[in-house]
Amino acid sequence: MTARRVRIPDDELNWKFTRSSGPGGQHVNTSDTRVELRWSLEDSTALDEAEKDRVRERLRSRLRDGAITVVSSQYRSQHRNREAARARLIALVEAAITPAKRRRPTRVSKAADQRRLDAKRRRGDIKRQRRMEP
């Protein structure tokens, strides 16, 4: 099953810009390049209720007051950080709404089971031989 592409409307995204840390010279002291993107899962129209429940379950450690926050400061440009934050948010949500694959139960082969038992028997023999010597 392929993951559904999520489209989050621009009006649901809250942006906050601050000065980024790290090197950058005079430019870094004057421009707000660090981007903090906040998206309210509860108020969103991009997902149906089943998908919202799945996101709540899988991203519960990232949810604060029903919203997911993503921060990007890897680029020196505010525009590129905006794109990076949006891409990271969409990737997070898409991964969360993708249903988990059902595990198909498999059986251990007879040969593998026999190898395991043989190894246990050999190990037991080694320990038994140690006990017999004074």
UniProtKB/TrEMBL annotation:
<dbReference type="InterPro" id="IPR000352">
    <property type="entry name" value="Pep_chain_release_fac_I"/>
</dbReference>
<dbReference type="Pfam" id="PF00472">
    <property type="entry name" value="RF-1"/>
</dbReference>
<dbReference type="GO" id="GO:0072344">
    <property type="term" value="P:rescue of stalled ribosome"/>
</dbReference>
<dbReference type="InterPro" id="IPR045853">
    <property type="entry name" value="Pep_chain_release_fac_I_sf"/>
</dbReference>
<feature type="domain" description="Prokaryotic-type class I peptide chain release factors">
    <location>
        <begin position="6"/>
        <end position="130"/>
    </location>
</feature>
<feature type="region of interest" description="Disordered">
    <location>
        <begin position="100"/>
        <end position="134"/>
    </location>
</feature>
<protein>
    <submittedName>
        <fullName>Aminoacyl-tRNA hydrolase</fullName>
        <ecNumber>3.1.1.29</ecNumber>
    </submittedName>
</protein>
<dbReference type="GO" id="GO:0004045">
    <property type="term" value="F:peptidyl-tRNA hydrolase activity"/>
</dbReference>
<dbReference type="GO" id="GO:0043022">
    <property type="term" value="F:ribosome binding"/>
</dbReference>
<comment type="similarity">
    <text>Belongs to the prokaryotic/mitochondrial release factor family.</text>
</comment>
<keyword id="KW-0378">Hydrolase</keyword>
<dbReference type="GO" id="GO:0003747">
    <property type="term" value="F:translation release factor activity"/>
</dbReference>
<feature type="compositionally biased region" description="Basic residues">
    <location>
        <begin position="118"/>
        <end position="134"/>
    </location>
</feature>
